[in-house]
Amino acid sequence: MTAERRTTAVRGAVLGASLALAAGAGLSALATVYARKVVTPDAEKPDDVDVLAVGAGSVTLRATPETIAPGRYGLWLDSGEGHARVGEVIDHDEQAGTVTRRLIGVDRGRLREGPGRWNQYYYAGTPAALGLPYEEVVVPTELGDMPGWFVPAAGGVPTRDTWAILVHGRGATREESLRALPVLHRLGFPALVVSYRNDPGAPRSHGGRYQLGDAEWQDVEAALLVAVEHGAAEVVLFGWSMGGAIVLQLVTRSWVADRVRAVVLDAPVLDWRHVLDHHARLNRLPDAVGRLAQAVLQHRSARRLLGVDAPLSLDRMDWVTRAAELRVPLLILHSDDDEFVPAEPSRRLARARPDVVTYVPSSGARHTKEWNVDPDGWDSAVARFLLEL
Question: For the chain, N or C: smaller number of CB within 10 Å?
């Protein structure tokens, strides 16, 4: 080989190595951005619905995957000052890109043409929106007082000494749990609807980031202690989405876990790796980015790179792998059409532990909207499970 050719080959090798390093650095940076987004609470929730027309008993909206979904939902109006509830789809004009739904009622404010925000919880506000009595409570934690609602059992039915503690998901609010209150109220279960660190109106963690359940369970443990101090002999923990990841950490890590009689999970996160891989694909990210993001979340430098209070343990939050450790009865309700937290880990856990898991699959519902699509079915499944404990 001539000297000139040797020089060209060396330059080519150096260039190839440089490009590989640059590509690797680019993937690492992208993975860090992705991981940071996962643990960062949304600063605000913008309007995402266009109200096009309001008729007698109906409302026409711009068609989106959410607004055409089956079931009953809500609309926040005027930046949350107003609220309306909508029911089934009356007409979906695919060519015009519109959907008309039944208007069930306007709770406050004025429904008119303009922007709004979709409310997947259907109800908005406090338990008073359902006509239920309640008390504002505070739960003392190491970070400060967490706000909550206490809803007593219905009058005329025996009050149980088992309480329900309801835990919402990532980016949600206590309003997510409102849908579950009527069936608990009728069955005589006092209910405590809780918040946790970094919720709106709740104390922030040191870094102001989600720990995806790896730390938030301590706030729910504090709520459990409040329930016990006020007469609860046992509790049933309810968790939606990340709320499921939170309550399962409590069941296996808390010194008062023996007070947990059972767990009810709606579209739970049972394996964060599975969810992170899914969202990487949804966002058209290379598979390597999703894997690297998981490594960043668990790395000792996660505090510096992501702002979390401590590196996360994804192994500790993988309940498919840890299925053998579960000791309390679980009810899992999960839609096969969940676009945000796929149901496969729920199915796998149910297959692995049929002795403790009651699995209620469904179809047609998007993430945590099983109740919205079939409220009677959701209530019946929960009632059967609780009455058989």
Answer: N
Cα separations (Å) of 321 from 238, 247, 326, 387? Answer: 22, 17, 11, 29
In angstroms, the CA 280 to CA 211 distance is: 19
Strands (E), 42-190: 49-55, 58-62, 73-77, 82-93, 98-108, 114-119, 135-141, 144-151, 162-167
* Cα 269 to Cα 45: distance, rounded to the nearest angstrom: 22
Order of all β-strands in the sheet with 144-151:
135-141, 144-151, 191-194, 162-167, 234-240, 260-266, 330-335, 357-362
Say how far apart CA 341 and CA 366 lie, in whole Å.
Answer: 9
6, 273 in Cβ contact below 8 A? no
The answer to whether the beta carbons of residues 184 and 283 sit under 8 Å apart is: no
Class of domain 127-387 (CATH, top level): alpha beta
- Residue 294 DSSP SS3: helix
The alpha carbons of the chain give a radius of gyration, in whole angstroms, of: 24
Average pLDDT over residues 257-282: 97
Q: Does domain 49-119 have CATH number 2.40.10?
A: yes
Q: pTM value?
A: 0.92
Q: Which of 194, 166, 174, 212 is nearest to 41 (CA)?
A: 212
* 3-state SS assignment for residue 42: coil
Parallel, antiparallel, or unpaired for β 114-119 and 73-77? antiparallel
Query: What is the residue extent of each domain of the chain?
Result: 49-119, 127-387
Cα–Cα distance for residue pair 7/147, rounded to 1 Å: 69
For 143-147, 148-152, 295-299, 379-383, which range has the lowest pLDDT when averaged over its residues? 295-299
